[in-house]
């Protein structure tokens, strides 16, 4: 799973040296991977796994990283492209504390200012793999010329790079690449392939390139699962740096659990030599639907239903939710009683209902990890799109199975509607408010549908049930928002209206307490 990057918080100390290859010498390897993205998820999962493989002599390759968003790469340059991954948590009842200096990044190049240099990497005969992690919308097709310097979209950049590769190798069969997007999008590999093929057609790149693309470039659907963050603030950063004995601007925190499921065939297995066949952490299979559904529904779906409630309670992190006696009970019952039963299972050991329940219990332990500052406000980014992608199918499956409205999903949906209640617009952005014992806290509503909800809340009087119901009906019935009409689900509108009314008039904690005690 992927949280939004927190701002880098560097605590300087005159007594400590900054991490670099002088104080931490590291071997250099041929550049075998091109990676689009510099975020903490890539640093804490794929790059970390390649580092482990190099240490064990299974890959012997390095990674060239492309930064697409801006031209600032100084934080990498100052550290000779080194950074530290700190693993903290509990796994199978045992405390885990591990520190790894990752040295697999050979270079970090800025697409905005070094695009031609990036294109020359396409001619590297050692290059085998491309990895990406942009945003969910980063895989969308944008009609543009790939001959810009650089193209604006990620698919545009990738098409230009692959075309340069094709030209440099003369369409050679053995010089195709394996492309692995890690964005949390269903069939992310197929979606990226579709965008590249459309761009090839729009840019009239020719039948030979299209053929090479079809037969010799393998786009893999993939799923990543690891909670990765940065230190929450300067104090936390400084404490960790004191333990390490050096400064690290790119310090990365993560949990022990990790999974990377990649949809691929024998060719993919032969290319991804950093994969240990005996390790359950990286799975290469012809079908990864089970792993995707399990994570999307159980882990991500629970986050999306629970995060608004937790934030409205005044909590800051996932660990705070699990330490709150009432909120933790809500999370547990929501996940175990309503979400887990709806996840499709197979009659295969490791993919059956028992495996789903075990995964859910593991997720609850991961949520309780006190070492990670997994901020609820970061999880709330694009909450509406996440609600649709992660929870609409779960809601439908619950109705098919139980023929009734799920009480905890309904309460989570009501809290989501309240969280989306903007109180004012500030420079084209909308903010919400929560009341606390010490006053009022405002928060940004970072959602493409912020104005949509702001407009609908204008006609709502909190004490008037009719206006509350009108809001619920109008949102639930929006096919464009959800892909279906949620208002036709029996009793769902009534349940959500009742809970939203209670949240507005009785308060968040009393409403939640009443629900979990039922």
Describe this structure in words.
It is a single chain. With 518 residues, this protein is α/β, with parallel strands linked by helices. It folds into two domains: 31-285, NAD(P)-binding Rossmann-like Domain (Rossmann fold); 288-517, Orthogonal Bundle (N-(1-d-carboxylethyl)-l-norvaline Dehydrogenase, domain 2), CATH 1.10.1040. The chain has 21 helices and 16 strands. It has helices at residues 40-44, 46-55, 74-77, 111-120, 154-169, 188-202, 207-216, 234-244, 266-271, 289-312, 318-323, 325-339, 353-367, 376-379, 383-402, 407-419, 450-457, 465-476, 479-482, 492-505, 508-517, and strands at 31-36, 62-67, 83-91, 94-102, 105-110, 129-132, 178-181, 218-219, 222-225, 228-229, 252-254, 259-263, 282-285, 424-426, 429-436, 439-444. Strands 5-2-1-6-7-8 form a six-stranded parallel β-sheet. Strands 4-3-11-10 form a four-stranded mixed β-sheet. Helix 9 links the parallel strand 12 (259-263) and strand 13. Helix 18 (465-476) packs across helix 20 (492-505). The longest helix is centred in the middle third of the chain and has 24 residues, at 289-312. The radius of gyration is 24 Å and the shape is globular. It starts with 30 loop residues before the first strand and ends with a helix. The model is unreliable at 1-13 (pLDDT under 50).
């Amino acid at each position: 799973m992927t949280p939004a990057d927190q701002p880098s918080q560097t605590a300087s100390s005159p007594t400590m040296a900054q991490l670099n290859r002088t104080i931490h010498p590291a071997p250099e390897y041929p550049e075998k991977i091109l990676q689009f993205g510099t975020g903490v998820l890539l640093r804490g999962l794929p790059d970390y796994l390649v580092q482990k493989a190099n240490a064990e002599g299974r890959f012997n390759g390095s990674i060239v990283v492309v930064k697409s968003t801006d031209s600032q790469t100084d934080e990498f340059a100052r550290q000779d492209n080194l950074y530290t991954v700190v693993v903290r948590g509990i796994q199978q009842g045992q405390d885990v504390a591990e520190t790894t200096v990752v040295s697999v990044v050979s270079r970090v190049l800025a697409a905005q200012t070094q695009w031609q240099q990036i294109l020359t990497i396409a001619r590297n005969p050692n290059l085998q793999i491309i990895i990406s992690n942009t945003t969910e919308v980063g895989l969308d097709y944008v009609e543009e010329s790939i001959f810009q310097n650089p193209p604006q979209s990620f698919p545009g950049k990738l098409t230009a790079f692959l075309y340069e590769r094709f030209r440099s190798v003369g369409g050679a069969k053995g010089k195709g690449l394996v492309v692995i997007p890690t964005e949390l999008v269903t069939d992310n590999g197929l979606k990226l392939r579709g965008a590249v093929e459309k761009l090839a057609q729009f840019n009239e790149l020719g039948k030979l390139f299209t053929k090479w693309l079809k037969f010799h470039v393998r786009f893999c659907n993939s799923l990543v699962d690891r909670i990765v963050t940065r230190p929450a603030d300067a104090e936390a950063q400084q404490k960790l740096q004191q333990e390490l004995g050096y400064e690290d601007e790119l310090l990365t925190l993560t949990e022990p659990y990790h999974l990377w499921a990649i949809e691929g065939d024998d060719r993919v297995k032969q290319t991804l030599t950093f994969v240990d066949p005996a390790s359950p952490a990286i799975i290469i299979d012809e079908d990864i639907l089970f792993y995707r559904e399990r994570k999307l529904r159980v882990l991500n779906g629970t986050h999306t239903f629970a995060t608004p409630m937790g934030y409205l309670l005044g909590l800051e992190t996932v660990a705070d939710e699990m330490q709150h006696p009432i909120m933790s009970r809500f999370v547990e019952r929501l996940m175990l009683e309503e979400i887990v039963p709806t996840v499709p299972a197979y009659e295969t050991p490791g993919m059956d209902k028992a495996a789903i329940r075990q995964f859910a219990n593991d997720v609850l332990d991961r949520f309780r990890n006190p070492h990670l500052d997994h901020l609820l406000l970061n999880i709330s980014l694009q909450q509406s799109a996440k609600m649709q992608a992660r929870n609409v199918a779960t809601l439908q499956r619950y109705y098919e199975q139980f023929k009734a409205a799920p009480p905890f999903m309904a309460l989570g949906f009501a809290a989501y509607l309240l969280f989306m209640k903007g109180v004012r617009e500030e420079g084209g952005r909308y903010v919400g408010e929560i009341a606390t014992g010490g006053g009022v806290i405002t928060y940004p509503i970072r959602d493409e549908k912020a104005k949509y909800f702001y407009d609908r809340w204008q006609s709502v009087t909190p004490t008037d049930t009719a206006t509350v119901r009108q809001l619920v009906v109008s949102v639930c019935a929006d096919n464009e928002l959800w892909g279906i009409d949620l208002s036709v689900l029996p009793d769902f509108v009534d349940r959500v209206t009742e809970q939203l009314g209670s949240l507005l008039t009785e308060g968040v904690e009393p409403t939640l307490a009443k629900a979990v005690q039922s």
